[in-house]
């Protein structure tokens, strides 16, 4: 009965894992990407930041338009004053020291030295930059989902390889037990198989745990609500069709045109340049049109103690002294502009680095896939031959176990090489802004 306990426990573990997987939704790559684009919190935050930048742009546009306000006031004067100025000599007036007013006030900026237009242009550039950052965030999330998806596919293949090895080892153990009972094999061979079986089960448990961790990482990327099961994936790991890598200079030129993050940084630098213009406009005069119409009352309020009054005029303001505030603001905005220029240079270097790395990874992954595909076939044939030799009494158990370990290593390496090839192609697309 003891020899069946490991078999029963393994079957129970497989059944439990299968039950967990069937309770979770199985997603294709396209479905996973669509869910992430809709629910990922990082994308949602970038979307709200873009909406905030658009609102700031609307506010700057509104400042170029006339404003209309309703204004009311109350004044208590130390001496009696006329309700309104006399319009003729000897005209009788209404006097008092409690004055109430209610006016509709219109104000329209006519000239601000370019400050208003610079603020609007800068806010529009910031809006475009926020949209570019949102686009780049979406691209990065798509890449992360794609990368994790292919790693999950590879992890499933790794687990299948270890499960096959465990099953084959358990079958080998049963065969050796029969041979030991018939005195056709040495008991030490059985001990070696037991050790290898324990080692394989430990690795299988570790790989299953890694699969669980990756599934929960995918759940976080997809924005899965707490309490929901970790998503499962649908698909089979196959060799990816990766186009031949173009010259890195071609990819770099494409990236500088298509990288939304790079375009966003350029727009931020342009917006900062507009901020410098706006700060310098603080030295120039401003002209605005102001008009109002309303009613004034003296206490006690009555029809014969009120008067409606309207006015319209131009207001010109000349800055004479501000304690150096404009100079300081110009210096601040200039420093910020220089910082933006360095960010542009930094991201140009980053683009070049990512393009070169992506192309190198594709070339390496393609070579690894071709090499490991051949290694899998050779390892399978080697394991078959060595096991048959042992069954015929012409080989050693150590050779069988070594051949099996080589087969597992070849299969797992091949699976991860296939995933790396697909991921490196996705990285290339991300690097050139696709």
Distance between the termini: 60 Å
**Class by SSE composition:** alpha+beta
Largest sheet geometry = 4 strands, antiparallel
Number of H/I helices: 9
Unreliable spans = 1-22
Q: Taking strands numbered 1, 2, ... along the chain, how are they ordered across the largest sheet?
A: 2-3-5-6
Helix content: 55-70%
Order of helices and strands: HEHHEEHHEHHEEHH
Average pLDDT score: 84
Percent of sequence in beta strands: 5-15%
**Integer-rounded radius of gyration:** 38 Å
Shape: elongated
Number of strands: 6
Lay out the secondary structure.
Layout (H helix, E strand, L loop, with lengths): L4 H18 L3 E2 L1 H11 L1 H22 L4 E16 L12 E17 L3 H67 L5 H36 L9 E2 L14 H11 L1 H21 L5 E13 L7 E12 L7 H67 L5 H35 L3
Parallel strand pairs: 1-4
Antiparallel strand pairs: 2-3, 3-5, 5-6
Helix pairs in contact: 2-4, 3-4, 4-5, 4-7, 4-9, 6-8, 7-8, 8-9
Q: In a nutshell, what does this entry contain?
A:
The protein is α+β, with helices and mostly antiparallel strands and 434 residues long.
């Amino acid at each position: 009965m003891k020899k069946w306990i490991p078999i029963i426990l393994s079957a129970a573990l497989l059944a439990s894992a299968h039950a967990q997987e069937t309770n979770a939704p199985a997603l294709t790559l396209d479905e996973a990407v669509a869910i992430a684009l809709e629910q990922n919190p990082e994308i949602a935050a970038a979307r709200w930041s873009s909406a905030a930048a658009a609102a700031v742009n609307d506010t700057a546009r509104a400042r170029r338009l006339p404003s209309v306000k309703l204004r009311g006031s109350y004044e208590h004067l130390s001496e009696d004053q006329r309700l309104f100025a006399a319009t003729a000599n000897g005209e009788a007036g209404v006097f008092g020291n409690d004055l109430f007013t209610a006016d509709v006030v219109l104000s329209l900026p006519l000239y601000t030295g370019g400050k208003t237009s610079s603020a609007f242009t800068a806010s529009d550039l910031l809006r475009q930059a926020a949209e570019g950052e949102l686009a780049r965030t979406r691209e990065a999330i798509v890449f992360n989902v794609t990368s994790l998806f292919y790693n999950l596919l590879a992890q499933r293949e790794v687990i299948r390889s270890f499960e096959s090895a465990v099953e084959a080892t358990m079958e080998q153990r049963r065969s050796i037990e029969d041979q030991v009972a018939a005195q056709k094999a040495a008991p030490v061979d059985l001990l070696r198989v037991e050790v290898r079986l324990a080692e394989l089960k430990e690795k299988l448990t570790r790989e299953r745990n890694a699969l669980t961790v990756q599934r929960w990482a995918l759940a976080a990327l997809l924005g899965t609500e707490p309490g929901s099961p970790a998503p499962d994936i649908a698909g089979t790991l196959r060799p990816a069709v990766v186009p031949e890598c173009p010259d890195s200079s071609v990819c770099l030129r494409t990236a500088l045109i298509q990288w939304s993050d790079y375009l966003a940084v350029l727009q931020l630098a342009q917006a900062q340049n507009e901020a410098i213009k706006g700060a310098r406009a603080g030295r120039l005069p401003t002209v605005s049109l102001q008009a109002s119409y309303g009613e004034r009352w003296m206490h006690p309020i009555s029809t014969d103690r009120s008067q409606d009054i309207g006015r319209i005029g131009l207001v010109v303001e000349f800055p004479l002294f501000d304690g150096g505030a404009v100079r300081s603001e110009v210096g601040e905005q200039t420093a910020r502009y220089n910082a933006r220029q360095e960010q542009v240079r930094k991201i140009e270097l980053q683009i070049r680095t990512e393009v070169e790395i992506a192309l190198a990874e594709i070339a390496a992954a393609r070579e690894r896939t071709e090499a490991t595909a051949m290694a899998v076939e050779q390892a399978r044939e080697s394991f078959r031959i060595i096991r048959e030799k042992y069954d015929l009494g012409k080989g050693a158990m150590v050779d069988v176990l070594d051949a099996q370990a080589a087969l597992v290593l070849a299969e797992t390496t091949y699976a991860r090489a296939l995933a790396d090839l697909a991921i490196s192609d996705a990285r290339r697309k991300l690097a050139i802004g696709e």
